[in-house]
Amino acid sequence: MFTLITAMCIFSLTMSITPGPVNMVIVASGASYGFRRTLPFISGATIGFILLLITLGLGLMQFVTAYPTFLNYMSIAGSSFIIYIGYKIGTAKPELTIEDNNCPNFKQGFIMQWLNPKAWLACIAGLSMFMDEKSHDPLILFSTLYFAICYLSLSLWAILGSKVGIILSTPNKIRIFNVSMGSLLCTCAAYLFFESVY
């Protein structure tokens, strides 16, 4: 049991802490709006991911394996949404303000995970490794561990973003940062699309 828990934790940490579309949005949000205003997006992304994991574990995985082209369509939709978010970040006004309504929110975080090719691949890989067809106990354990690790990992990205925000003292620095983050997000979306489709 200890070995299983350790393996689940390592897998969850590796998939949550490594850079991806959601992490990049969190860094940009943390830099622009601070840690506290980024928490709703983190909560939405974490809950969205765990619900995707549970939904796949309770039966959607059978549909996905029966119709593999479904993932191709999800990749197209997901990459398009992530590119849209990247565009919004890249073209954001070069100012740090807590009144800006463009701050990523809970709903965007939730939807982004369901449209994120990396999230689908992480869920499918994790379930393939840890799922037991005879019992839902491994799914419950895996989901619980993943929730805690994912939330903490994404929070660390927000803290990193808030620290970056301290050095963004001029509109020109903010513009460069926004364009860089938006471009990275679009590049990441394109990579995930081609990786999953081809």
Mean pLDDT: 85
Give the percentage of residues in beta strands.
under 5%
Fraction of residues in helices?
over 70%
Give the C-alpha Rg.
Answer: 17 Å
Instruction: Tell me the number of structural domains.
Output: 1
Q: Which geometry do the CA atoms define?
A: globular
Low-pLDDT runs of 5+ residues are: none
Q: What structural category arises from helix and sheet content? A: mainly alpha
List the secondary-structure elements in sequence, H or E. Answer: HHHHHHHH
Q: Give the CA-CA distance, first to last residue.
A: 37 Å
Q: What's the count of strands?
A: 0
Provide a count of the helices. Answer: 8
Q: Report the sheet with the most strands, covering strand number, pairing sense and barrel closure.
A: none
Short précis:
This is Threonine/homoserine/homoserine lactone efflux protein. One of its GO terms (molecular function) is amino acid transmembrane transporter activity. The chain has one domain.
